[in-house]
Amino acid sequence: MSIRANQRQETRQKILEAARSCLESGDLQSASTREIAKRAGVAEGTIFHHFATKEELVLCCIGAQMAEAIEKGLYTMDPEWCFVDKLMHVASYRFAQIGLHPGVWTVIMQQMAFTPRKGAVNDVMKSSGLIRAIDDLIEEAQFCGELNPNLAPTMIRKSLMALFLFTVHEHMSTQNFDCEDMCATLRELIEVQTVGLWASKPELAA
């Protein structure tokens, strides 16, 4: 990599770190590009050489955190674990991040709910490697007979993500960011889903 490319990468990383620091307050509006530039030690205009909009900058911060947690989770995972244990292992790294940076996660939840660009959140999950990682775990579990092979992996992933987001919201509302408590909540929800809600197969309407 050239010296110029290295410098550009270093500047981009400084901006991301400064933005993450500003977002610790949990208030997206107070994290102005002027303040981010000041903390990064760059001109405000430099931010927009690296990120087209403030939203893109925030989403890149989100993606970087996701990628870090996923990489650590996958790298330290025991291949002999069952599907739920593997899933919980990855989730535990995300919950640990939430406990360390609750303000950042407040902004993340706001962005996931109210981001103005359609598909932005899905793009972040895809670029961070989250979608591929979860899909791989699901497909492996279906092949091994742990999960219903007749269900589309995409639908299983969406269902699991819904449970994860509910867990985050539930614990953020009570300001309980204990990693073990959050894991326990998610595991209970997943086990209910795995066992199934129906006492017997419901009759489909004619």
Number of helical segments with 4 or more residues: 10
Shape call: elongated
Query: What is the mean pLDDT?
Result: 85
Residue windows where pLDDT falls under 50 for at least 5 positions:
none
- CATH architectural grouping of the largest domain: Orthogonal Bundle
β content, as a range? under 5%
Annotation, overall tally of beta strands = 0
Percent helix among the residues? over 70%
For the biggest sheet, the summary is: none
CATH class descriptor name of the largest domain:
Mainly Alpha
**Which structural class matches the secondary elements?**
mainly alpha
CATH T-level topology of the largest domain: Tetracycline Repressor, domain 2
How many separate structural domains? Answer: 2
Distance between the termini: 64 Å
Order of helices and strands: HHHHHHHHHH
Q: Radius of gyration in whole Å, from Cα?
A: 19 Å
GO molecular function, one term: DNA binding
InterPro entries: Homeodomain-like_sf (IPR009057), HTH-type_TetR-like_transc_reg (IPR050109), HTH_TetR (IPR001647), Tet_transcr_reg_TetR-rel_C_sf (IPR036271)
Keywords: DNA-binding
DNA-binding region: 32-51
List the helices and strands and how they pair.
Layout: H1 3-23, H2 33-40, H3 44-50, H4 54-75, H5 83-100, H6 102-114, H7 120-127, H8 130-143, H9 153-174, H10 179-195
Helix pairs in contact: 1-2, 1-4, 2-3, 4-5, 4-7, 5-6, 5-10, 8-9, 9-10
Domain HTH tetR-type: 9-69
Pfam family, one: TetR_N
Keywords: DNA-binding
